[in-house]
Design a protein that fits this description.
The chain has 295 residues and is α+β, with helices and mostly antiparallel strands. The protein has helices spanning 103-106, 120-137, 143-167, 193-205, 212-219, 223-234, 238-256, 261-267, 273-284, 288-292, and strands at residues 4-6, 15-22, 29-31, 35-42, 45-49, 52-56, 61-64, 70-74, 80-87, 114-115. It contains ten helices and ten strands. The longest helix is centred in the middle third of the chain and has 25 residues, at 143-167.
């Protein structure tokens, strides 16, 4: 398996639409804290997510989740064109119910990352992504506002696609069964509405002290069942999931603000500087200061 490295994305704001072209250049399997949607415009790409591989064709949209190892590459001798949409959770924090739009990106085990070109939702995502790029390139009035509106439209399409997939899931979905490589299946759908609700709640409240027992009670499940289903959906325990969100938030603040490391630790929900440094390095391989300084 190729090595995995943490990519330090230099976003200057909470979201960006980036047109890209390329060929079959090799690059390492990598992770980053930003959420990402790749919209393939021309050519073909192979997308790899951990041990799953998908064949991408023009019009396909791919969801790259934070801290999930992934890469993409073109066929030998061929080129491709795409739009990368990079954003952080803070991009939709002011949108009513905005955190709920992010749930599909954290359902790492519950939803296939591919929205196929044959889906009307993928077609609308492509149209919105291309319009956002044109708005910036043409220097349109309020281009940033137009791009933000496009981002919200795209996230609504992703959210509704995920909801439709959950509704179409059969009994195998909760057991995690179904096709893996090559595309979505009913077994790739969100397994438990109650768990998706918990994920949405944690996206809103990860900076606060989280009462795990209360989450279990609200789900209506037994404790063992709740933890099993939470890990099935997200690939993490509730505690691990909260820590991941706090680290993601801290990375965003380190990139985009001049706040001190202590202030960032507090704002991100860590109870102590030592806990912050330990957890941050465990996820990123460097200290918070090292990350900020690009080392």
């Amino acid at each position: 398996m190729a090595p995995v490295y943490v990519e330090r994305l230099k976003l200057t704001r909470s979201f960006s639409f980036i047109p890209v072209t390329g060929s079959d250049e090799e690059h390492d399997l990598h992770v980053h804290d930003c959420l990402e949607i790749g919209v393939l415009l021309r050519g073909e790409l192979t997308y790899r997510f951990g041990d799953r591989t998908y064949a991408g064709r023009p019009g396909d949209a791919f969801l790259c989740r934070p801290f999930e190892p992934h890469w993409s590459y073109a066929k030998p001798g061929e080129t491709f064109g795409a739009v990368l949409i990079l954003f952080t959770p803070s991009a939709v924090r002011a949108v009513p119910g905005g955190s709920r739009l992010l749930v599909p990106f954290y359902a790492g085990r519950g939803l296939a990352p591919l929205l196929p070109a044959s889906s009307p939702r993928a077609a609308r995502i492509r149209e919105a992504a291309e319009a956002a790029v044109r708005a910036k390139e043409a220097g349109q009035a309020a281009a940033e506002t137009r791009q933000f509106a496009a981002l919200v439209d795209i996230l609504l399409e992703v959210h509704d696609f995920a909801s439709e997939s959950a509704g179409a899931a059969g009994p195998d979905a909760a057991a995690g069964k179904g096709a893996r490589a090559g595309g979505a299946s009913s077994g790739d759908a969100l397994p438990q509405t109650e768990i998706a609700e918990s994920v949405g709640y944690l996206l809103d409240h990860y900076r606060e002290a989280v009462d795990g027992e209360a989450l279990v009670r609200q789900s209506g499940m037994g404790k063992s069942r709740y933890f099993e289903q939470f890990r099935l959906l997200t690939g993490a325990s509730p505690h691990e999931f909260v820590v991941r969100l706090r680290v993601q938030d801290a990375m965003d603040l380190l990139r985009t603000t001049d706040l001190s490391v202590i202030e960032i630790a507090e704002r991100s929900g860590f109870q102590s500087l030592s806990a912050f440094n330990k957890q941050f390095k465990a996820y990123c391989g460097v200290s918070p200061r090292g990350y900020r300084n690009g080392r």
